[in-house]
């Protein structure tokens, strides 16, 4: 994941697409009771397409009639009507890429060298359009044939990319461009930034060494890491066993409520309850069973993986260590952190340990009421009793009953239908960023499922000109991953007149100066439940407040991609430092927790009433009962990530258990959860980024939005200081602009301390 496409790949965020202008929104005539979308589509349409299934079905049916003679491919790419088309598209892009490489090898003229960095970016964009598309298809497409084709194309492109990363001719020519004053003076700041990034990545790929074997080893290791890592990530959702067997007599005498026991099935011998892992049964037992031994057994089963999965992780860590030492780094964490905000593993651990000192006492305090309940129920004389992971849900439930919680979360969720939340998001972005969503019915074949909704994001300050496209696959579906995800299918990039542009493959827009841009295409994938139905049989999707927060988080990534419109794709949108990329998404979590925002987006599905501020204040206060405990859990994960990528222990599970016991709070020394920690692949040695960005986001929200979360002045400030730059400006320079503190641009210890002072408000 280096050089030409490293910035694209390192975040699990992807790219691809067809010609589209700001004047070509799909318009529909009125049929039946449906008012179909148009350029004047009201925001109530947004709510209806999610909350009224009949409305959506009629729109799709009408659209099918209109476009039946001109079906399109996935994301309007004419190649992608079937899996074979994906292979053809990959071959087409590979041919374009090779042509660009040949041109850069041969054209050493002055004009050729002036365009050199831009051509490298064009090459990167050509590869990313396939690699990122394949990443999305592998994770989300329901057809195995597409998934298999995507895996094949991904591996082929990745291998080609790694060969380029060790191409000495490309590297030496780039050095020449960056070391020739006459050429430097002709480069834009953005080109210079991208050139330096690519040179750093070339050198991290071994190009600073003339040793051919080193370069060959790098290619081989990178390819192996990609394959093993994908195998690891594909199996993180699988438990070690499909069923949990609990002795019938022990569970029956445990005083578990009969309403829970009656829904459990016994095996043929009747000696054991046989409870499927993927059912509500295990979670019901964790909440209601007084017997700690049984809860421990259930919790361990839910959080354990197979020995084979641990084996895959061990191989992944070993390969990464070999790669790092091959590149003359002491460990993979040092290799990964070069060029990041935190810079070194020592700085990361200093940051994490400082947070531990702040957060740990607060987490202990949060768990103290639960610990006292445990002492009381066990009738212990000794206060040396700790709260374990399998205790939390059970004693939290007891605590809730004792407190007589104010509001039933199910009742609260009825104020937050998926449609009302999406409509609320559009209103919020309109208020703070002057951008809104316009729903557009996808053409036949444009999406991977009929329930996918499409939004065009438009700029209200520029006659609703097109900014980008977001595809929303949000409803639960059999076989669909349960983890929410954001994919960049195609990023923003300026398209220059002398480039080889196929207008049937790239959705474009024109800025006020007449420049043509490839628009960002984003896919949001969630798995929200539609188990409830109204009196007309419509599926209803109500969101818990935690799910509202999830949706806001993923939309934060999407809007970063929308606003980060740069000339070069290597620094577009979310293509910024990995330990800075979570800032916009975590900032959106603050909006999702603000009672003023929740009040505005709430809309009871029957009465259309909003949830009052007083109730929301009490609910959000209740939901903060374990906020520091949650942060501490993230701290443990971030430290584990550092330990595994610096020490590469022989016994991974033991290292995990040792760390858990050392960290004390909610210690797990029974499961093999480390093999289910999927971010070890995508964020290897960089998981601390969540906490660093959480600290920054807290600082930003309190600085800009605390007085008014709907402030257009604050939104404009954040957009102009952070979002619009993508990765083209140093993150510390962005923060210096955001906080009006020029001294932060140094990114030194004082800057880190300034951010760290927010740690108590994570």
TrEMBL record:
Limits of the Peptidase M3A/M3B catalytic domain: 286-753
Location in or out of the cell: Mitochondrion matrix
Co-factor(s): Zn(2+)
GO annotations of cellular component type: mitochondrial matrix
Keyword Zinc: yes
Keyword Hydrolase appears in the UniProt entry: yes
EC numbers: 3.4.24.59
Keywords in alphabetical order: Hydrolase, Metal-binding, Metalloprotease, Mitochondrion, Protease, Transit peptide, Zinc
Reactions catalysed: Release of an N-terminal octapeptide as second stage of processing of some proteins imported into the mitochondrion
Record family assignment: Belongs to the peptidase M3 family.
Protein name listed in UniProt: Mitochondrial intermediate peptidase
Phylogenetic placement of the source organism: Eukaryota, Fungi, Dikarya, Ascomycota, Saccharomycotina
């Amino acid at each position: 994941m280096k050089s030409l496409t490293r910035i694209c790949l390192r975040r699990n965020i992807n790219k691809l697409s067809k010609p589209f202008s700001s004047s070509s929104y799909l318009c529909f005539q009125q049929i039946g009771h449906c008012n179909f979308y148009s350029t004047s589509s009201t925001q109530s349409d947004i709510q209806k397409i999610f909350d009224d299934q009949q409305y959506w079905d009629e729109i799709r049916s009408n659209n099918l009639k209109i476009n039946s003679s001109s079906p399109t491919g996935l994301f309007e790419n004419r190649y992608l009507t079937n899996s074979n088309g994906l292979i053809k598209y990959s071959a087409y892009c590979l041919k374009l890429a090779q042509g660009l490489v040949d041109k850069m090898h041969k054209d050493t003229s002055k004009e050729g060298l002036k365009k050199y960095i831009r051509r490298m970016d064009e090459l990167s964009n050509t590869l990313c359009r396939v690699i990122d598309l394949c990443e999305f298809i592998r994770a989300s497409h329901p057809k195995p044939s597409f998934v298999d084709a995507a895996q094949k194309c991904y591996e082929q492109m990745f291998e080609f990319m790694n060969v380029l990363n060790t191409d000495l001719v490309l590297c030496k020519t780039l050095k020449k461009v960056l070391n020739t004053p006459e050429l430097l003076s002709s480069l834009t700041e953005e080109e210079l930034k991208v050139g330096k990034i690519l040179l750093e990545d070339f050198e991290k790929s071994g190009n600073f060494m003339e040793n051919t074997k080193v370069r060959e080893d790098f290619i081989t290791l990178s390819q192996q890491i990609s394959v093993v890592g994908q195998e690891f990530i594909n199996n993180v959702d699988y438990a070690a066993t499909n069923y949990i067997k609990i002795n019938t007599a022990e569970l029956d005498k445990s005083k578990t409520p009969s309403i829970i026991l009656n829904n459990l099935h016994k095996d043929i011998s009747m000696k054991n309850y046989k409870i499927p892992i993927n059912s509500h049964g295990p979670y019901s037992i964790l909440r209601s069973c007084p017997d700690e031994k049984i809860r421990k057994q259930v919790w361990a089963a839910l959080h354990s993986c197979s020995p084979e999965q641990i084996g895959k992780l061990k191989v992944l860590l070993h390969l990464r260590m070999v790669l790092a030492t091959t590149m003359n780094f002491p460990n993979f964490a040092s290799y990964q952190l070069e060029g990041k905000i935190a810079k070194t593993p020592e700085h990361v651990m200093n940051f994490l340990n400082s947070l531990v000192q702040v957060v740990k006492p607060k987490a202990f305090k949060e768990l103290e009421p639960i610990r006292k309940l445990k002492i009381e129920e066990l009738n212990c004389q000794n206060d040396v009793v700790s709260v374990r992971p399998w205790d939390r849900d059970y004693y939290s439930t007891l605590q809730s009953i004792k407190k007589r919680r104010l509001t039933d979360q199910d009742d609260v969720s009825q104020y937050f239908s998926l449609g009302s939340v999406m409509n609320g998001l559009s209103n919020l972005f309109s208020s703070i960023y002057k951008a809104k969503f316009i729903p557009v019915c996808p053409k036949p074949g444009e999406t991977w499922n009929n329930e996918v909704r499409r939004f065009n994001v438009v700029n209200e300050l520029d006659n609703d000109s097109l900014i980008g496209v977001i595809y929303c696959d949000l409803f639960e579906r059999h076989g669909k991953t349960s983890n929410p995800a954001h994919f960049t299918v195609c990023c923003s990039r300026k398209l220059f007149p002398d480039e080889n542009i196929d207008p049937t493959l790239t959705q474009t827009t024109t800025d006020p100066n007449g420049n043509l841009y490839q628009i960002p295409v984003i896919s949001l994938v969630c798995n929200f439940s539609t188990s409830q139905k109204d009196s007309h049989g419509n599926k209803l999707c109500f969101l818990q407040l935690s799910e509202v927060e999830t949706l806001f988080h993923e939309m934060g990534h999407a809007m970063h991609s929308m606003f980060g419109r740069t000339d070069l794709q290597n620094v577009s949108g979310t293509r910024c430092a990995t330990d800075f990329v979570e800032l916009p998404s975590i900032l959106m979590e603050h909006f999702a927790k603000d009672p003023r925002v929740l009040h505005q987006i709430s809309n009871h599905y029957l009465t259309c009433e909003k949830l009052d501020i007083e109730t929301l204040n009490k609910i959000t206060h209740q939901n903060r009962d374990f906020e520091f405990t949650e942060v501490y859990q993230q701290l443990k994960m971030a430290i584990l990530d550092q330990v595994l990528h610096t020490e590469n222990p022989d016994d991974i599970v033991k290292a995990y258990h040792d760390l858990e016991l050392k960290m004390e709070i909610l210690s797990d020394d029974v499961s093999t959860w480390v093999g289910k920690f999927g971010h070890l692949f995508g964020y290897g040695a960089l998981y601390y980024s969540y906490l660093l960005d959480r600290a920054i986001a807290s600082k930003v929200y309190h600085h800009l939005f605390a007085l008014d979360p709907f402030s257009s002045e604050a939104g404009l400030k954040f957009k102009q200081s952070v979002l619009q730059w993508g990765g083209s400006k140093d993150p510390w320079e962005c923060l210096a602009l955001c906080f009006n503190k020029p001294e932060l641009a140094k990114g030194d210890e004082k800057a880190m301390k300034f951010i760290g002072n927010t740690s108590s408000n994570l």
